[in-house]
């Protein structure tokens, strides 16, 4: 199973977390047919607000300068992944399958069972 989050670019002030069942790290399992009750995934968090949207101008420039200078994308990704890991442990999930959390377009994925980050290219589901 894969839990993924989209934080694609700073022009999008929101993020989402999606739980999906995948054949491998890159290919989602397809439903048997359109009428099936089977679902290949579900949104755990849909459109959560990260920051106030700014129009272009001085406030916009100051915000993104501060964001870049303080490496807030990395900080945000760490906080979100720590939260997902905490929720996973509180849920006491006991599936005999590997479960990973990843951010769209990032190389590494967090193994929620072991708590270690792994290169997605090296993961064999």
From the alpha carbons, calculate the radius of gyration and give it in angstroms: 17 Å
What general form does the structure show? Answer: globular
What share of the residues does DSSP label as strand, in percent? Answer: 25-35%
Report on the biggest sheet: 6 strands, mixed
Give the total of beta strands. 6
N/C terminus separation: 9 Å
Rounded average pLDDT: 75
> How much helix is in the residues?
10-25%
Strand arrangement, major sheet: 3-2-1-4-5-6
Structural class: alpha+beta
Q: Strand-and-helix sequence, N→C?
A: EEEHHEEE
Stretches with pLDDT under 50, minimum 5 residues: none
Determine the number of helices (DSSP H or I, runs of at least 4 residues).
2
Summarize the structure.
The protein has 125 residues and is an alpha+beta fold. The protein has helices at residues 58-69, 72-90, and strands at residues 2-6, 14-20, 41-49, 100-103, 108-111, 117-119. A six-stranded mixed β-sheet has the order 3-2-1-4-5-6, with helices on one face.
Give a written overview of the molecule.
The chain is an alpha+beta fold and about 120 residues long. About 25% of the residues lie in helices and about 25% in strands. It contains 2 helices and 6 strands. It has helices at about 60-70, 70-90, and strands at about 1-5, 15-20, 40-50, 100-105, 110, 115-120. Strands 3-2-1-4-5-6 form a 6-stranded mixed β-sheet, with helices on one face. The longest helix has 19 residues, at about 70-90. It is globular, with a radius of gyration of 17 Å. The termini are close together.
């Amino acid at each position: 199973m894969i839990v993924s989050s989209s934080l694609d670019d700073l022009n999008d002030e929101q993020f989402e977390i999606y739980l999906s069942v995948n054949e491998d790290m890159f290919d989602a399992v397809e439903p048997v047919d359109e009428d099936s009750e089977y679902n290949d995934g579900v949104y755990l968090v849909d459109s959560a607000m990260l920051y106030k949207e700014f129009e272009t101008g001085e406030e916009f420039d100051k915000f993104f300068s501060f964001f870049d200078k303080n490496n807030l994308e990395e900080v945000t990704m760490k906080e979100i992944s720590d939260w997902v890991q905490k929720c996973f442990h509180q849920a006491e999930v006991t599936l005999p399958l590997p479960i990973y959390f990843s951010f769209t377009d990032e190389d590494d994925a967090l193994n929620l069972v072991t708590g270690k980050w792994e290169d997605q290219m090296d993961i064999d589901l």
